[in-house]
Amino acid sequence: MNTLMIVVGSVRPGRAGLPIAEWVRTVATQKGDWQIDFVDLAELALPFMDEPQHPRLHRYTKPHTIAWSERVERADAFVFVTPEYNYSYSPVLKNAIDFLNSEWWMKPLGFVSYGGISSGTRGVVALLPSIVGLGMVRVGANVELSFGMRRIQDGVFQPEERESTLLDKELTELASLADGLKDVRARG
């Protein structure tokens, strides 16, 4: 069984990302294709990049980096649940990505983005050069939530049918790519 890492890409108090990510986890668990590693960056609490050497060298010195590296290395696919901040990406998510390098290589990634009218898409677009540079493979189906905060009731995100359909498609694509890219990584 493949491991899907779901990353909550915001640490703001009162964030919409946590209930949205919980929805993603519930749907992924119900599909039964995945072992889930749920990463809340607020709990992970990585400091701002503090490794003395470039992550490409894989010579980590800090226990938090070593632990993060091991978790990402074990993952076969990712869903980044990410907001848009000031027409760009969440800095805490970018920091978590930048801590590592080869651990991301040839692994599929889907986004569940949220924001105002733009649904967080500008944040995703701003991340794409880094994602491509690290060799991640983005799926075609991604969930984009306009004003997602308005659909959280008693701490639970209430998706629309279209969003649930897209998430199902995204998870199916991730599962397919996770299997195929595992072989690619094995060949080096």
Task: Tell me about this structure.
The chain has six helices and eight strands. With 188 residues, it is of the alpha/beta class. It has one domain (2-186): Rossmann fold. Strands 1, 2, 3, 4, 5 and 6 form a six-stranded parallel β-sheet that branches. The chain has a two-stranded antiparallel sheet with strand order 7-8. Helix 1 (17-31) crosses helix 6. The two termini are 21 Å apart.
Could you state the order of secondary-structure elements as H and E? EHEHHEHEHEEEEH
Shape: globular
DSSP, total strands: 8
Mean pLDDT: 96
What is the CATH first-level class name? Answer: Alpha Beta
Q: Biggest sheet: strands, sense, closure?
A: 6 strands, parallel
What multimeric state do the chains show?
A: single chain
In short:
With 188 residues, the protein is an alpha/beta fold.
Topology (elements, then pairings):
Elements (H helix, E strand, L loop, with lengths): L1 E7 L8 H15 L2 E7 H4 L18 H12 L2 E7 L7 H8 L9 E8 L5 H13 L3 E2 L4 E4 L5 E2 L2 E2 L3 H26 L2
Parallel strand pairs: 1-2, 1-3, 3-4, 4-5, 4-6
Antiparallel strand pairs: 7-8
Helix pairs in contact: 1-6
Q: Could you name the key traits of this structure?
A:
188 residues; alpha/beta; Rossmann fold; two-stranded antiparallel ribbon
